[in-house]
Amino acid sequence: MDEIDELLSIRAAELYYEENKTQDEIGQALNLTRWKVGRLLAQAKHRGFIRIEILHPRARRLPIERRLREERGLTDAIVVSSAGVSSAEELQARTAQAAADYLTALRPVPRTLGVSWGRTLFDISQHLRNGWATGVNVVQINGGVSLNRRAGTAAATAVAISQKGGGQATLLPSPAILERLETKHAIESDRVVAGVIELARSAEAYLFSAGAADHNSVHVESGYLAPGDVDLLVAKGAVGDVVGRYIDSDGNIVDPALDARTVGLTLDEIRSSPLAIAVVAGPAKHAVADAVVRSRLCTVLVTDESTALHLLDG
Amino acid sequence: MDEIDELLSIRAAELYYEENKTQDEIGQALNLTRWKVGRLLAQAKHRGFIRIEILHPRARRLPIERRLREERGLTDAIVVSSAGVSSAEELQARTAQAAADYLTALRPVPRTLGVSWGRTLFDISQHLRNGWATGVNVVQINGGVSLNRRAGTAAATAVAISQKGGGQATLLPSPAILERLETKHAIESDRVVAGVIELARSAEAYLFSAGAADHNSVHVESGYLAPGDVDLLVAKGAVGDVVGRYIDSDGNIVDPALDARTVGLTLDEIRSSPLAIAVVAGPAKHAVADAVVRSRLCTVLVTDESTALHLLDG
DNA sequence: CGTCACCTTGCTCATATGAGCAGGATCGCC
DNA sequence: GGCGATCCTGCTCATATGAGCAAGGTGACG
């Protein structure tokens, strides 16, 4: 295609897309046959001169979703558009909304849904509509009795999801991480706790997010880890955590001793589930998202466009 | 349009624009008739959810051009797209290219073209192709013997335009601004200078740019004005200059005394021309561009998208 | 509860567009 | 300059889309 044709294809595109002329009219205006105009427009599209964006908070990027499914072996992928996003909060909100939409549309409806907790999960619970399902019971899959004043968001999350879904919530009455291994064993042998974990193991689906390994982590905020602890984990290769368990870029546990003191389902238990929905968004979580997908921790990923593109780059 | 339809229109748009499905296929996928799908897509477009951009250095914004013609009374307007522009230089280059294109396509071909000088005009001269016209003579319309080492760009500009257009250049051998009024009168009464100005008055078309009233001005760079002089002009309301004459936002001469010492056509002489092409681009020139268009100094404007939108906002 | 105005829906029909093909131009190669 | 391969052009025909219309549904109001 020479320069003259390239220019013509731009003129044609202007008339077609901005002025809503027919290819025939454009042909008359530019002294071309309408077939030539059609070919010029096809060329312009093919060469990437035409960009079509859908500007809407609920817009998704289907081609990227397909690539994620095909190239990264996911059962399903939901990628929200970043077009026109102004703030990180907006991106988070869009992703949470998309996750809520996905849950709502999920068939068959899981009778029991295992959930983690955190900012993302809380947002999802808030975006779910009342009556999004009927009879969906929720069970926590990792410890989450918070040590600080924001105590209760973990519980509130599970309760909101279950109530809006017309079911019951079963909370895991345990801290996320215990200081001593013995305490962890003791708690796990508690009849109630053991029962909840057993129920969690039998859940038909899991819904969880991932945290970045930095000082903004909910584990730091909740007091389970000190900022210095996180630094140590990062030094050992941690990129983030899933259900409280810190992993490296290959999805392996970074610190087995710490992991042994963490209450909840193991990563392998989640990995073996036929339906594990991970919701991960934001630039800070690119690395964890990659680890989660690489190590097949999830079968379904809900994320934003730029995170998705990051996954596909690798 | 309720929320459910809005969402459907987004889903439909994704399938239509990103997945290239037919409206019929979309209908099957979403359980709608194809007519409903067509209406949803029309709604999505109408509501501004669909943005189509032409990404190309030569792309223009025809709807904005039309608005400029209709709302600001221009004979013609050329607006280059800002989509995908990374640097100010790129914007300047695009605009210069568009101006060169406009000149090349201009019919009837002007026998004599009056030009000003400056960075923009130089860029235009460089973007013109050899043989862009045959027999176009060029005459300078304002003084421009530069006082510094970059002397010669003014002359080079006029010569390049005329040579590539198969004609002769007539230079105005005078400084842009003189220090004393008497000197200005003396120069103007010089037979050669008077002849050139007479020729300039008879030009069939004018091509000029406008400068912002700031320290980057070519007048400062060339030594005709000191930075402090510009500050004074700004204090008097100057927004920029056209052919060396500083104007306020209404297009009026800001400093009559200074203006009297400026050699070249007057603004009214340019204003009375049936074809006066102004080329003005860049955020710094929004104010001058507005003054130029408001005071009808030009009949044709070549500019960039954001400047054009600025003009239409007022 | 009836009536009317308005909006939505699913259609028919005209138009716009894309696929595929045959003839003709263009180019490299000898 | 001859020859074949390739690309380009303008066509026919099938398909996709938008305009306009009549029927049905909805809601406001008496």
List the helices and strands and how they pair.
The structure is a homodimer of 314-residue chains.
Chain A: H1 3-18, H2 23-30, H3 34-46, E1 50-54, H4 62-72, E2 76-80, H5 88-105, E3 112-115, H6 119-127, E4 137-140, H7 153-164, E5 169-170, H8 181-189, H9 191-201, E6 205-212, H10 218-221, H11 227-235, E7 240-242, E8 245-247, H12 256-260, H13 267-271, E9 276-280, H14 286-294, E10 300-304, H15 305-313
Parallel strand pairs in A: 2-10, 3-4, 3-6, 4-5, 6-9, 9-10
Antiparallel strand pairs in A: 6-7, 7-8
Helix pairs in contact in A: 1-2, 1-3, 2-3, 4-15, 5-6, 6-7, 14-15
The structure holds a DNA duplex (30 and 30 nucleotides).
Strand content of chain A: 5-15%
Low-confidence stretches of chain A: none
Quaternary structure annotation: homodimer
| Beginning-to-end CA distance, first to last residue of chain A | 33 Å
Average pLDDT across residues of chain A? 94
Biggest protein-protein interface? A-B, 26 and 26 residues
Backbone CA Rg of chain A = 24 Å
SS field, number of helical segments of chain A: 15
Q: What characterizes the major β-sheet of chain A? A: 9 strands, mixed
Anisotropy-based shape of chain A: elongated
Which bin fits the share of residues in helices of chain A? Answer: 40-55%
Helix-strand makeup class of chain A: alpha/beta
Order of helices and strands of chain A: HHHEHEHEHEHEHHEHHEEHHEHEH
| Total beta-strand segments of chain A | 10
Organism (chains A, B): Agromyces lapidis
Domain Sugar-binding (chains A, B): 62-312
Keywords (chains A, B): DNA-binding, Transcription, Transcription regulation
Family (chains A, B): Belongs to the SorC transcriptional regulatory family.
